[in-house]
Design a protein that fits this description.
CATH topology of the largest domain: Arc Repressor Mutant, subunit A
InterPro entries: ScpB_csome_segregation (IPR005234), WH-like_DNA-bd_sf (IPR036388), WH_DNA-bd_sf (IPR036390)
Number of domains: 2
Strand order of the largest sheet: 4-6-5-9
Structural class: alpha+beta
Pfam family, one: SMC_ScpB
CATH architecture of the largest domain: Orthogonal Bundle
Largest sheet: 4 strands, antiparallel
Keywords: Cell cycle, Cell division, Chromosome partition, Cytoplasm
Protein name: SMC-Scp complex subunit ScpB
Oligomer: single chain
CATH superfamily of the largest domain: Winged helix-like DNA-binding domain superfamily/Winged helix DNA-binding domain
Length: about 220
Amino acid sequence: MIDPHHLRLIEALVFASAEPVSERSMAERLPEGVDLAQLLSELEAHYATRGFNLVRRGNGWAFRTAPELAEALKVERTLERKLSRAAVETLAIIAYHQPVTRADIEEIRGVALSKGTLDTLFAAGWVTPKGRRRTPGRPLTWGTAEGFLDHFGLASLDDLPGVKELEAAGLLDSRAAAGAYGNRAVEGDRLVDTGFEEEDQQLDLLDDEDVLGIGQ
C-alpha cells in the first residue's frame, strides 16, 4: 500500500527542483524498502490529465507543461541569437555518434571546428566531456548531457528521430542519408553506430584537471 506521505514527499522534491530529479536522490529521502517505482507510477498517472505532467528526462523526473497546452501558453518574445549552423551540425554529430572527439567531428563535417562551438554547446548544458580515448594524445571525447534530453523533450537517446523521420521532415536529403552520418549505418529507420564500439571501451575517466580542457 502506498504511503501518502511518501507520495507527497516525492511530489514536493520534483516540484521544488529546477532540474530533473534523479531516482537516486529520491531514494535517499525515503525509508529503506519503499517502492519508488510504484510511487512514480502513481504520480505519473495522477498528473497525466493535468495541466502539467510528470515525465522522465534521462535519468531523472520533472514536471513539464502538458504538450497539448503548449500552443495556448506561447508568448511572443524577441528571439535570442540562434545557434550557428556549425553548432547545430556539431550537436547533431555528437548526439548520433557519441562519444566523439574533435577530430571525429571535423572528419564528419569536412571542415575545421572552431573552439567556440563546443564551448557554446557546453555552456548551454547540452554536451559534456565523456572521458579521454586511449589513443595517442588521449583526445577528449564528447557526448550529450542530461540538459540535451530535457531541452529537446526526449526521455532517452533512443527517442532521437530515425532516418525516415528526418527525411519526412525535410531535414535529411538522399545524399546525407547515404553517407553523411559516417560510421552510422541505417538499420530499419534508425541510425546505428558501427564504428566507435571498440573505441568506446577504450576511454579513460576524466581526471579533475581534465574538466577545464573544454576546447580540446
